[in-house]
Specification:
single chain; globular; Helix Hairpins; 4 helices; mainly alpha
Length: about 120
């Protein structure tokens, strides 16, 4: 049981690091909070809210993995290396794909509700 609690502690330390030091993660969290509040205010369905939450989760997971790649690569190869740049760019691209997907999901869900508010 003690090892399990330690592993949760390590995970929380990692999350705190990402939130504290990664500006893009904080931006993602702010947008996620606003998207959830908007969903509650518009009274979207539970299934739609779950889709929004899942999209948020995917974006934040991508951001955490991107940060882990960047920190690892900085440790392994502190100087400039073209292959390291490619790997970092690919990880950043994964975050971009996740965020673009989340925006599309948000537009698909929220647009009909917003159109009804502003005919």
């Amino acid at each position: 049981m003690r090892n399990l609690l330690k592993s949760f502690g390590y995970a929380l330390t990692g999350l705190r690091y990402v939130i504290r030091y990664e500006r893009n993660a904080r931006i993602h969290l702010l947008i996620a909070f606003l998207a959830l509040i908007l969903g509650l205010e518009l009274r979207i369905t539970d299934a739609q809210l779950a889709a929004v939450f899942f999209a948020i989760l995917i974006v934040f997971l991508a951001e955490i993995i991107n940060t882990a790649f960047e920190k690892t690569l900085d440790l392994v190869s502190p100087g400039h290396h073209p292959q390291v740049k490619i790997v970092k760019d690919m990880a950043a691209g994964a975050v971009l794909v996740a965020a673009a997907g989340a925006v599309i999901i948000g537009l698909m869900i929220y647009t009909p509700y917003l159109v009804k508010l502003f005919p």
